[in-house]
Amino acid sequence: MNRLDFHPVLVRLPYLLGGVWITILIAALAFGLGLSLAVLLVVVRFENRGVWRRMSRGYSTALTNTPQLSQIFAVFYCLPLMGVMVSPFLSVVIGMTLNAAAYLADILGAGMSRVPSVYHEVALTLGLNRRQTYLRVILPHVGRTMFPALANHFQIMILGSAMASIFGVEDLTGRAYDIGSTTFRILEVMLVTGALYAVLSFALAGIFMLCRRGLERMV
């Protein structure tokens, strides 16, 4: 009976840990870009009642009801057909950005619908235009109230970024596959990788909790 042997994995731990930063980078880029696109989508959704509003809702419906992996595959294969050559890393970031924007738009939309009407009245009294009202009053309020949901989605993206390994990106999972293929210790390396993902998730949860407390003090 074969016994677990973590030594071949542990000696390659520095290489494996290097993939943690790539995992964080992928998720952070996709989240930041996705959040920016989500803000545009939700503003269009609340400020327009015609075709633009339907397009915004249609975008979210389409991307939240199809697998994220298929969306990344679409970016990975379709952009070169259009003459746009991008790296596997960038393909993954773009695919995750488009997917994140759909989900984050729904999260922000839920927060927007709960903004008291008095906020708009105060902004009007202060002489703020629509752009200033969103930037200085509405969006900061939505960000505070929906922070837990936004933080939770970022953690989901950290775990979902493991799909990048399918496209040859050397994130945490990609490096785990590499170590497993050279040491033939697949179970051991996946157990260590799972532990690293868990540590990363708990660390982020702690950071987000501190951030949330800070935001609550600002209210």
Could you give the topology of this structure?
Elements: H1 7-10, H2 13-47, H3 51-64, H4 68-81, H5 88-112, H6 117-125, H7 130-145, H8 147-160, H9 172-183, H10 186-218
Provide a quick synopsis of the model.
This protein has 219 residues and is an all-alpha fold. It is 80% helix and 0% strand.
Task: Describe this protein's structure.
The protein is mainly alpha-helical and 219 residues long. The chain contains ten helices and no strands. Helix 2 runs antiparallel to helix 9 (172-183). It is globular and about 70 Å long.
Distance between the ends: 60 Å
Question: Helical element count?
Answer: 10
Radius of gyration in whole Å, from Cα? 21 Å
Q: β content, as a range? A: under 5%
Shape summary: globular
Biggest sheet, in brief?
A: none
Domain ABC transmembrane type-1: 20-208
Family: Belongs to the binding-protein-dependent transport system permease family. HisMQ subfamily.
Membrane topology: Multi-pass membrane protein
Pfam families: BPD_transp_1
List keywords for this structure.
single chain, 219 residues, mainly alpha, 10 helices, globular
